[in-house]
UniProtKB/TrEMBL annotation:
Keywords: Membrane, Transmembrane, Transmembrane helix. The keyword Transmembrane helix applies. This is Xanthine/uracil/vitamin C permease. PANTHER family: SLC26A_SULP TRANSPORTER DOMAIN-CONTAINING PROTEIN (PTHR31610:SF0), SLR0360 PROTEIN (PTHR31610). The keyword NAD does not apply. Coiled coil: none annotated. It comes from Antarctobacter heliothermus. It comes from the Bacteria. The chain crosses the membrane at residues 20-41, 47-70, 82-107, 113-136, 148-168, 174-193, 200-219, 239-262, 319-338, 344-362, 374-391, 431-452, 459-479, 485-505.
Amino acid sequence: MRDGSYTYRLFHRSDFSAFWALFTDNLINLMVLAGICQFVFQMPAEIVFGRIVPGAAVAIMAGIAVYVWLAKRAAAQHGRDVTALPYGISTPVMFVYLFGVIGPIYWSTNDPVLAWQVGIGAGFMGGIVAAMGAIVGPWLKRVTPRAGMLGTLCGIALVFIGTVPLAIVFENPFVGFASMIIILWGLVGRFRLPWNIPAGLLALIVGTIVAFAMGEAKISTEGVGFYPPLPYVGDLIAGIQHLFANPELFLVLVPVQIYNFIETMNNVESAEAAGDHYPVATCQITDGVGTMIGAVFGSPFPTTAYIGHPAYKRMGAHAGYIIGVGAVIPLAAFFGLLAFLNNLIPVAAAAPVLVFVALSLVTNTAMSVKPAHMAAVTIAMMPHVSAFLMVKWGSMMGALGASGVEGLPQLGDPALTAALLQQGAHFEGHLALSQGAILTGLIWGAIVASVIDGRFRNAGGFALAAAAMSSVGIIHGASLHWPELGGVSAGYLIAATFLYVYPLFHRDDTPQPTLDEVTTPAE
């Protein structure tokens, strides 16, 4: 339909249900970061609700404006309805900024204001790195098999977006199960609910009612007020100056922002797999600039195109759902309603929405790659399991220390590592896999998919790239360092050599059956 008769409607009735899902996703992130900043890093409410949250809202508004425009343009180009890319604060990167940038500054200085200043400085500088991903993003998208890009997203979805919220549901089963069954019925099963109520909205209402009945929710106006977004240029400059005076913090920023623009690239590929095509370079610039805008207005936390476009596509959403989020989130931020909602809505009531997003992403990936490439998707997921284990092992050690256990060794202590190995816990291997997990998953997924297709030079190129990145600590390393040939980087070089050389001497080899051919019985 390119005869001029097609008109893209920004709003569709399906946007209402999709809005509640995306709104809940953003709301949980804002609730988590506000709680950690206020109660772990002792930031005053004036900074948390008066600067950080409004700044994040400004960044979300800016990015959503661009993604609505991109959706309108894509619909006009293809002459059909499209679903706008979801947008918000990057959940994995948010935790890195909290505990890799803001936390160390606070713990070393006991100065929450300085920690916030360094946070927004890091956010601004990180936004520049993320935007620079547009230079290499389109090329990476061309050479990287879809299975590698989507597989590493599936790993994030499985362990962080799906498993953690599901654990929250089981921690509070009365609230969580009441909400969960509605999400399964209305969003996963796609059955109509009474009076066509959006499943996300009904799940929040029912979960909140159950929490009220159990005394786990309350109505409180504490923190409600007017918090207009203001630029904090002086604080931003102070934070950037501290960064350059302590350049070791860039060792955290650079890898995580490389992760961020790779995540954007993967999410654009996920949307393409679902049928909607967006320019990856434009999206990466948008995410970087949105992060920089948020930093100017007080938010340290990077924004990105969200995981989960296939879920909203499946709902039949257009662009109205992100427009709604772009209106409601700022309203809640500027008038202090986030604190009100934080007291009102239990996390267990909202968690099932994230479980649905994870289920949709994994399911859509399985349907959008050829069956032989599911081996590549699977191996791309595995590093994220290691990342999950490392996070939880660190949490366990922190909990032991907080409970008064004395003389605890640090994770990585040789004696502890040896003891863990005796118990079947391969700490060193999981540590290596967890460092740069999204890149590691993408690389191994790309290698396996390329080998399956007989594209050995392409697979060898990814192995060489992995050798280079591991030699400087971008992956499989605790921090950036000068190039050095370690065991892992040498292993990648051996793999690359094999992938380049072996096919030269065995050009006429007949490929062996693929996994799906082996496991599928003959008809």
